[in-house]
Amino acid sequence: MSDAAMIVAGAIACLGLAGAGSAFGTGFAAAAAVGAWKKCYAANKPAPFLLLSFVGAPITQTLYGMILMFIMLGKVDVPNAGVPVLVSGIFAGLAIGLSALFQGRAGAAACDAQAETNQGFTNYLAALGIVETVAIFAMVFALIALGKIG
Predict the structure, then answer these.
(1) What percent of the chain has pLDDT over 90?
(2) Helix pair 3-42, 60-73: axis angle to 10 deg
(3) What is the pLDDT of residue 125?
(4) Fewer beta carbons below 10 Å: N end or C end of the chain?
């Protein structure tokens, strides 16, 4: 496999893994939001629109994967960059994707708690922000490492 092919593969892996995590995370949170809204409707309580913020939180990890993908694709003409970019893409994408997956799991719990109590929104959002920080760290550290290539 040529260096260029490995770089493209690493870039695709990074975006794919980050996007897969976002899909899982938003899916988990969305299912919980729908269930929470159903409980509200059944109890003749207002269904909190705020739950959509928990559902959408894991989407940002796809953007982090996309940012890294573009930086990685910029290394196509750099000699001997194939293996480092491929490895960076796989592991950065995995870290970012897992952050999205678990942010969605936390978002699911936040949906249930917010709908039931109508309290704690800021605390729940702060918890999701901490999980998001893992993805931000992974992206920034990967950017630093990629900057050393070439």
Answers:
(1) 99
(2) 170
(3) 97
(4) N
Residues 6+ apart with CB under 8 A from 94: 17
Map tokens 């996309």 to a residue. 66
Domains in the chain: ranges and CATH? 3-147 (1.20.120.610)
Extended beta strands in the chain, E state: none
Residue linked to tokens 């509200």: 40
- What DSSP string runs through 35-104? HHHHHHHHTTPPPPTTHHHHHHGGGHHHHHHHHHHHHHHTTTTSTT-HHHHHHHHHHHHHHHHHHHHHHH
Whether residue 1 has pLDDT greater than 90? no
Q: How many CB atoms sit inside 10 A of residue 46's CB?
A: 10
More confidently predicted of 150 and 120:
120
3-class state of residue 78 by DSSP? coil
**12/7 Cα distance (integer angstroms):** 9
Provide mean pLDDT across the span 78-89: 97
> Would you mind telling me the total number of residues written for the chain in this entry?
150
The Cα 64–Cα 25 span in angstroms is 15
